[in-house]
Amino acid sequence: MRKTGIRSAVAAVALLASVLGAARADETPEERFQRRMPQPVLVGDLIGLPVLDDNQSTLGYVRQVVRTSAGKIDLIVSYSPWFGWFGHPVAVPIGSVGIFGRNIASLDMSRQDFAAAPTWSGAGAQPIPATETIRIGLTRH
């Protein structure tokens, strides 16, 4: 009986790892977002959280959460190559990040993508109130 319990636990961990794992080449951004089991979170709880790269280095901090004119949700992150300090605002789609604890992992945007991203201007975007609930994917680091 004990071996069965251990096998079940190992199978459950493997399943969770595959669900939360790396992006698959044939998936759309929406499919990746759904696979990350999006959970409700208050917008105000995201403000100020660090956004980390694969090496758990800080890319920047969430300044604001907005809804674009296309109805998509973006995190406005103050990106800086110097540990997230003195950054310029970059729009990061909610589907390309995942939350773990009090950190946000950049899953589909590399450090180079952040560096190449244009400075966010805010054109056509509406800030989402801190009291509103949105959904964000889960991840592990």
Low-confidence residue ranges: 1-21
Q: How many structural units, i.e. domains?
A: 1
Structural class: alpha+beta
The CATH homologous superfamily is called: PRC-barrel domain
Relative helix content: 25-40%
What's the overall average pLDDT, rounded? Answer: 82
Strand content: 25-35%
The gyration radius over C-alpha positions equals 16 Å
Work out the number of β strands: 9
Q: Examine the coordinates and then state which fold CATH places here, giving the name of the CATH topology.
A: SH3 type barrels
Give a short summary of the structure.
This protein has 141 residues and is of the alpha+beta class.
Describe this protein's structure:
The protein has 141 residues and is an alpha+beta fold. The protein has one domain (2-138): Roll (SH3 type barrels), CATH 2.30.30.240. Helices cover 26% and strands 33% of the residues. Strands 1, 2, 3, 4, 5, 6, 7, 8 and 9 form a 9-stranded mixed β-sheet that branches. β3 (58-67) and β4 form a beta hairpin. The longest helix has 19 residues, at 2-20. It is globular. Mean pLDDT is 82; it is low at 1-21.
Present the secondary structure layout.
Elements lengths: L1 H19 L8 H7 L3 E4 H4 L3 E3 L5 E10 L5 E7 L8 E6 L3 E4 L2 E4 L4 H6 L9 E2 L5 E6 L3
Parallel strand pairs: 2-7, 6-9
Antiparallel strand pairs: 1-9, 2-3, 3-4, 3-8, 4-5, 6-7
Features:
141 residues; alpha+beta; SH3 type barrels; nine-stranded mixed beta sheet; 4 helices; disordered N terminus
